[in-house]
């Protein structure tokens, strides 16, 4: 008899086919209202595993509908909308997919940094509009090589960003709850101190209540009028009104953003600014990486039902907190 698995967020087509072949799948993601409640009432008590994503809010009340649940396999790196403490109390292990998206997310951080500092979008528009021919060369931009990059959150993704920043000639410093071993980067115990030191601040810390508003007005002021901010973490980590004011008033030079406080409807003030490069929370959005993320969910489910160690546990015995 196949085991029951609840799907609160779909996987890629190939992995959905594998899921449906191996398990009795209950597609909660396709239902709304009364139909959703009916499925939870009927199938919820039988499901020992669930497929989720960082866009799914999981609280204690929802978990109470799934009394047999022991695994929540998340197809994203972030899980800040999930009550991990409630899962742990109920003996539910959460897994995520940080390791397989490192390269694409780190690449995007580098891309946003260079695009913001070299005004790539402005330059593209300058050529397309014909202003180059009418007005001559566009104004000079700011070099990146030789500057200081401060990374907020030196987990796996932060380390991947650091290595790329080193490759383009940047000196690395970082902020975190504690000093990390295995590197000789400058450590700062306060994000304001890091921002004072840095020319570029790259945010790669997890979201959630612990980091909400971490990049505050004070941090942005410390970064200064020649500084750049890059955020590939979560929108909640940055005080967005303070960031918009800093960009509008020239208190920082530029920003590159993949994430926003209100997704998918970010503050329209960003669209009016030409010193910010915007990307639609798509840093991991490549065919290859999304396939690997979905496959890791399948592999965690297979390990769980085979009684083997989970590949990427977030909580519980043997868990390793992920970078984003």
TrEMBL record:
Pfam families: 2-Hacid_dh, 2-Hacid_dh_C. It comes from the Bacteria. Coiled coil: none annotated. Residues 111-283 form the D-isomer specific 2-hydroxyacid dehydrogenase NAD-binding domain. Residues 5-315 form the D-isomer specific 2-hydroxyacid dehydrogenase catalytic domain. Keywords: NAD, Oxidoreductase. Belongs to the D-isomer specific 2-hydroxyacid dehydrogenase family. This is D-2-hydroxyacid dehydrogenase. It comes from Shinella yambaruensis.
């Amino acid at each position: 008899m196949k085991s029951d698995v609840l799907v609160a967020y779909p996987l890629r087509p190939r992995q959905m086919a594998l899921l449906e072949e191996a398990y009795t799948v209950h597609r909660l993601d396709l239902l709304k209202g009364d139909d959703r409640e009916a499925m939870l009432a009927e199938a919820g008590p039988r499901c020992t595993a669930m497929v989720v994503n960082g866009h799914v809010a999981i609280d204690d009340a929802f978990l109470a509908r799934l009394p047999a649940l022991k695994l929540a396999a998340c197809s994203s790196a972030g899980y800040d909308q999930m009550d991990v403490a409630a899962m742990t109390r109920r003996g539910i292990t959460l897994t995520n997919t940080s390791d397989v998206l490192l390269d694409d997310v780190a690449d995007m951080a580098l891309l946003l940094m260079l695009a913001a500092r070299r005004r790539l979008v402005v330059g593209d528009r300058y050529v397309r509009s014909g202003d180059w021919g009418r007005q001559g060369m566009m104004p000079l931009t700011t070099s990146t090589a030789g500057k200081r990059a401060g990374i907020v959150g030196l987990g796996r993704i932060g380390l991947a960003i650091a290595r790329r920043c080193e490759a383009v000639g940047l000196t690395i410093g970082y902020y975190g709850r504690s000093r990390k071993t295995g590197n000789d980067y400058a450590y700062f115990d306060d994000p304001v101190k890091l921002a004072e030191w840095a020319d570029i601040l790259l945010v790669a810390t997890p979201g959630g209540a612990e980091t909400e508003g971490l990049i505050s007005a004070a941090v942005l002021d410390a970064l200064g009028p020649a500084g750049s901010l890059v955020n590939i973490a979560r929108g909640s980590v940055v005080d967005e009104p303070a960031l918009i004011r800093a960009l509008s008033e020239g208190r920082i030079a530029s920003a590159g953003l993949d994430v926003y406080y209100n997704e998918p409807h970010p503050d329209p003030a960003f669209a009016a600014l030409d010193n910010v490069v915007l990307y639609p929370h798509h840093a991991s959005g490549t065919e290859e990486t999304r396939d690997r993320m979905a496959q890791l969910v399948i592999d965690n489910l297979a390990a769980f039902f085979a009684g083997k160690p989970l590949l990427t546990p977030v909580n519980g015995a043997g868990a390793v907190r992920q970078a984003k």
